[in-house]
Each structure stands twice: as C-alpha cells, then as structure tokens.
Write a structure and sequence with these properties.
Rossmann fold; globular; alpha/beta; 5-stranded mixed beta sheet
Length: about 475
C-alpha cells in the first residue's frame, strides 16, 4: 500500500516560492493577468502504478510530473526519487525551474517530477522497473519527449536512471531520430556531455566567487573580497555539494565543516577535502575523520561560525527557528529552496547576503541545454572542435550569445571580479568548451542580477533575480501576442 505523504515540507516550499514571487512581482509593472499566468502551474500529471518487488509482492507507488510554464518548450527539470515528494513539491520545484531557466537565458519552460520512494530501500532491479514504468506512462501522456518535456537527474537519481529513461523512450518511439535528446544527464556513451556531472557544483562555486568579488556585497557582509581563506560550511555532499567543496578547496578556501545525513565533521582550522573523500571511500562515512570534531546532528553545522554557508541538501533547511543562530555572513543556496521567507527576512535585517538558488544552482540546467543541443545536432562537440571555426565552437557560443545578447554599449562581457578565468583555446576539447560556456553564463547572470539590484534599488539579490526572470518571461508572452 502507498503511504500518505507528510505535506508540511512540500506545502512550505510551495508557499515559500509563491511568497518570493509575489514579493518580487510588486516591483514590476506587469498587468495582474500577466503575473497570474507567469505564477500558475500549467499542467500536473499524477500517477499510481504497481511495482513488483523482488520477493514477488506488489506495492503501489505514487509519482508526479509538473509542467509549470509552456512559454518555452520543451519544459526542463529534474526527476527525483524521494519518499518526501508530493504534488505540491513537484509544482514548487517546477516553478523554480521556470524562473531559473529564464534568468540564465536557457530557452526552456520549467518542469519537475519523480517517484515517491526511498531509493535506498530498493534493489537496482526494483529501481529499474520503477523508472521504466514511470517513463512509459509519461511518454504515453505526452509528458516526456525531446520537444515537450526533457527530465534530468535530481535527488535520488543519476546517470543510470537517465540511461533507462532514454532506452525506454527509444523502445516506444523507434522512429524518433532525436531520441537521445529526451533526457539529459545521461552517461557519456548514451549521448551525455563531459562536465554535466560537476556543472551544478561548479556553478555554485562560480556564483559565490562573483559575490565575494562584488564590493557592494562584501561591504554589506562585512568581509574582505576574494575566495581564498574564506571559511566555508557545506551541508550535503551529494553531486552538488561534493563538486562545490572540491572547487572551494582548490581555490584556497577553508572548509571548516562538512555535513552529511548521518552527521557532520568540524575543524575551525580547515579540513583537507581530498583526505575526507578518501576517508569516506574507505569507511562509508565522514564521521570519525582524524582531527575533526563529530556533530551527531548535521543541522548543527548550519549554526557554526563561518563566512559562507552552503546548504546543498534539501528544501527548508534554514527557517525561522534556526536562522537567528546562523552565524554565516553569506548564505549560498546550492539546494532548491533551502531558506524559507521567514529566515530570508531575518537575514535581510541582519545584513546577511543570500545568493538565491534561482541562479546559483543553474549550472546543471545550463550544461543540460548544451547536452540537448548536442543530441539534436547528432554530433559530438569534441569531435567537431577539430574544425571548430566552421561548426561547433561557433555553434556553442552563438547559442551563448543568443542567451544573453550583445552589450549595446559595445563593451566586452566581463565578470564582476575581473575577466573570465578560462576562455577556450582553439581546438579546445568538448569539456573545456562546455565548462568555459558554463562559467561565462554564470558570470554574466551574476553581473545582470547585481546591476538590476543597483539600478532599481531592490532590497536583495533574490528579488533582483526574480524581477529579471519575470521580465524575461513576460516579454516572451508579449511577443507571442497573448498579452497586448
């Protein structure tokens, strides 16, 4: 039997997302009807289907797919396996995806969904049956295709599940030559793209780097500029948190605490991240790491003294109860919706800089866009770079120009803190091209958000990011002729 979900977390996230939208919408001049269209969720598909367990028993599982906005197609967003997933949560996450894609200029609407199961409680065979059954239903209901709805990995899923999805879609639609583009985050042999795995975590690092190089942000936070020496706490060492931690470590930041689901480790003098990774590989946990203090409750890590707190786990981790005890001067939202509106208001009063999830964790969807383009072009960027002047080098960066447009003042696009650190060289490989394009996207978006905040005298970066996203979506609707 399926169990009844606890609605609190999902309802909080959904309500929080609507609250943030309404707050930002008040700073725009769009008609109420336009704002309501941008705000509402266009379509939700709810599924209940039987899963045959390895022991022969049958369990009914619940699944969802939400398509928040059809102003651009396909819609894009992750597919998660989580016992906490609900319809409201899927809608909230899809809404965040809409604004995220609009903000960074990726031409997708927002979607999100998944299956309400705990993947740790199931065998690989059971997970494969769940994934293929869920995929088949989505395809049948037109909630999955290269032109309509393109999922990606999310909490509890990864390359393996994306491989099952593309194989199932191909079986159902053998005539579709674009079948590889039905999902992103795939393994490389199935049309994946180098750099996708680390893209979100690396994007988090780039976003924080731009923030700590922004004079106004550092004046507000009361910190010196630069990444080097910054004391970092990271909650969650999944795909996003682990790659962000690696990037901070390599840039000379001081990782003073790392938190996982079973506890956290703390050393105010800094942790050797490479040694932590090796220790976890051998022991299966970060607890007990030599030279660090164990914290049995991982939530305690959120309240440690640090410069930058990176919540990279799940939603609603920082709320009204614990926000007054959070000592970080910068909150970097690597997860989706980790800070509630009540906590956000507390941080604003205290002058804490919150870098919103809306663009900070947009690295994944940015590189997913490049993977989708690669699959539709039926060619590897890396192979084409041997003749990059004629094809992919130009194609990839023309796409990037289309995302952001040219400066009308004729000036080069530069990050807040200086030049882009790794421009691609002639004959660059596929991964170098992708990560360079990712960096440029994150840098340009950060600059645009900061400029909008200053130009309109907006209260915080989240409001500036949301206002920018609303304006871009509204412009699309206006061009469609729906709203005169």
């Amino acid at each position: 039997m399926s169990t009844t979900p606890s609605p609190s977390s999902a309802m909080n996230l959904f309500a929080s997302t609507l609250d943030f939208f309404d707050h930002a919408a008040a700073y725009t001049r769009h008609a109420p009807g336009m704002l309501e269209q941008i705000r509402c969720c266009n379509a939700v598909h709810r599924i209940n289907f039987p899963l045959r367990m390895d022991d022969g028993s049958i369990r009914v599982v619940e699944a969802y797919r939400a398509q928040h906005s059809h102003h651009r197609l396909p819609v894009k967003g992750g597919m998660r396996f989580s016992p906490d997933l609900t319809e409201d949560m899927a809608m909230a996450l899809a809404m965040l995806m809409t604004f995220k894609c609009a903000l960074v200029g990726v031409p997708f609407g927002g979607g999100k969904g998944g299956v309400r199961i705990d993947p740790r409680a199931h065998s690989e065979a059971e997970l494969e049956r769940v994934t293929r059954r869920y995929t088949a239903d989505l395809v049948q209901k037109r909630f999955l295709s290269p032109s309509l709805d393109v999922p990606a990995p999310d909490y509890g899923t990864g390359e393996r599940e994306m491989g099952w999805i593309v194989d199932t879609y191909k079986t159902l639609h053998p005539e579709d030559i674009n079948h590889l583009a039905c999902v992103t985050g795939k393994p490389l042999p199935l049309g994946g793209i180098p750099g996708r795995r680390e893209a979100t975590g690396l994007g988090v690092f780039i976003g924080v780097r731009e923030c700590v190089n922004a004079e106004a942000d550092m004046r507000q936070a009361g910190l010196e500029g630069g990444v080097e020496g910054k004391r970092i706490v990271i909650q969650g060492l999944g795909n996003v948190g682990s790659h962000a931690a690696q990037a901070f470590h390599e840039a000379g930041a001081k990782l003073v605490a790392l938190a996982e689901i079973d506890g956290a480790i703390h050393n105010p003098e800094g942790l050797d991240y490479d040694a932590v990774v090796e220790y976890r590989r051998r022991k299966g946990t970060i607890l007990g790491f030599p030279g660090a203090c164990d914290l049995a409750d991982p939530a305690e890590a959120l309240e440690l003294d640090c410069d930058v707190l990176v919540p990279a786990a799940l939603q609603n981790q920082v709320h009204a109860d614990n926000a007054p005890r959070v000592r970080a001067r910068i909150i970097a939202e690597a997860a989706n919706g980790p800070v509630t509106p009540e906590a956000d208001a507390i941080f604003q009063q205290r002058g804490v800089v919150v870098i919103p999830d809306m663009y900070l964790n947009a690295g994944g969807v940015t590189v997913s866009y490049f993977e989708w383009l690669k699959n539709l072009n039926h060619v590897s960027f890396g192979r084409m770079t041997r003749r990059y002047e004629q094809n992919v080098y130009r194609s990839l960066f023309e796409a990037l120009e289309q995302l952001h447009g040219d400066r009308d003042d004729g000036q080069a696009l530069l990050p807040i803190g200086g030049r882009i650190s790794s421009p691609p060289s002639p004959g660059a490989g596929e991964k170098e091209l992708v990560l360079s394009a990712l960096e440029e996207t994150m840098v340009i978006t950060s600059r645009q958000v900061h400029e909008r905040k200053q130009a309109d005298n907006l209260p915080d970066l989240r409001t500036a990011a949301m206002v920018l996203a609303i304006d871009k979506i509204a412009q699309t609707y206006e061009y469609m002729g729906i709203f005169p």
